[in-house]
Amino acid sequence: MSIEETIREYILENFLFTDDQSLLSSEDSFMEKGIIDSTGILEVIFFLEEKFNVKVDDDEMIPENLDSVKNLVAFVGSKA
Amino acid sequence: MSETIIHCLKESVSRYPDSEAVVYKDQRITYKQLWSMVCSVVNYLHGQGMKKGDRVGLLIENSPEYIAVYYGALSAGGVVVGLNTTAKASDLINWLEHCDARFLFSSINHPEFNEITKNCTYQLNVIGIGEYLNDQKSTCDLWSEIVDKSLLELDMTMLADMMSPATIIYTSGTTGSPKGVTLSHRNLISNTRSIIEYLGLSSKDSIVSVLPFYYSYGNSVMHTHLAVGGRLVLENSFVYPHKVLEKIVQERVTGFSGVPSLYSLLLSRTKLKEYDFSKVRYMTQAGGAMAPASIIRLLEEIPTVNFYVMYGQTEGTARLSYLPPKNLIEKMGSIGKAIPGVTLEIHDENNNICPPGVTGEICANGDNIMIGYWNSPDETRKVIVDSWLKTGDLAHYDEDGFLYIDGRSSDMIKTGANRISPKEIEEVIAHLVEVEEVAVVGVPDEILGQVIKAVIVPTSKNALEKKTVQAHCRKNLSLYKIPKIIEFTNELPKTSSGKVKRYLLQNNN
After folding, report:
1. Which tens digit of pLDDT belongs to each residue from B249-271?
2. Closest-CA residue of chain B to A56
3. DSSP-assigned beta bridge partners for residue B128
4. What is the pTM of this model?
């Protein structure tokens, strides 16, 4: 499974509670679409750290890195 | 006419007209500018035939507009109903109908906006705030058409008297009768004055405000800082905590208010020592117990700050007690003593006062105690007895008169800054045909204080998946009300009278 597929599946499964891929576009802002709240973002960070073995530094906790599937994929890619 | 929070704001406007009152995104609004917005709201509402006591709903995030509508509606004689912006349309409509709101000031881009205007069962005058993200044509009055920057004279002839309702804060309720805590002008001003006194607030103070104004804690932050001519720096998201810290430093604010989960986030996800907190004079914490270990860590990271542990309830306007920073270490774990103007007693089951060391229910008396629950005299009688508010919180005094919370006598769940009735989640889950019975409880969580757990008896084995339950909740409840933990069982533990033994469900295994 690619990084994007893994992240997408995680978001669908844990925040939208569905496997319907059509409900989440890669560019959807988690905040604006009301998909994830502040504690949800923490869960996403724990998931990234565990699944992809990356360390998310405090100053990396910004929407540009975390606020959509596309941003998460790019962020994890940049850590590789 | 005695002084109200409107008079306090007016005083701040006349003393500090050109000082910043609100900083919001790239806007810096002075007291004079804020006042013209307030006057515009009054002017508009009077023009619409507003009558004394009409309820005015408010559905926008913390913003200059929120403040202007709040103070404007009060000045025009109205009762403000600040609505939870994360609530679903069904809740919002239920609340609006319950208090028979005549006006609704709402962000036109609120996700439930169209649903509310379409499904509200009576004539609700809607005023849209903001700009449409698409080319949609407006079907309601717009904020941009209401505001007249030249208006500076406030017509306060309609202002209600001190004992009349000023605001309603809905604390729960999807179905049945929602609980609308109704606060008078006297409630608001007395609590505002008390908080100003013990925090020592002045026009030199400013605060980064992340707490929503529609909750009593955020509401008190708004009133206290505007009453002294201070400055509110609005940040509506705590999703990215270090951005909030940067704002504290950039804006050189003197204060910060948070709930335990916010402080947990700061401690776990930021390097507090790397920020310059030299201007920050006070930090306050309420909205549930914060672990002593976290308080000690915070003091180690920011040793210069005065940290105020506070306790309160919406039914007490916001605040009931505080622990002075000078007593923080010595009385760690205490919620302190009653704030100025409030009397707190510990009562046993027979309403006798408990001696030090003996646990009973915290009962509160003072000018800040609510009028009652809106249109719910029976519910009101359960919690206000002989002018004493029965808080439902169990506590004891020590020999020095400091209070310590020992537990709660009610089933309410406290997660993050939110107080949730398990019943409203149970009612939503029970709508699933595969559910025979359900009980919802709060279980301990390091960051949030509690998280929600639902224990379900399905109609048959394998009838239901966890995901189905959560997806159903997502459709019908705010995000923070979706149970994190779902368990299935054959039967719920019950007393001989059939009441669910919730305490047996409260382990998170």
Report:
1. 999 999 999 998 889 889 888 88
2. B269
3. B106, B142
4. 0.88
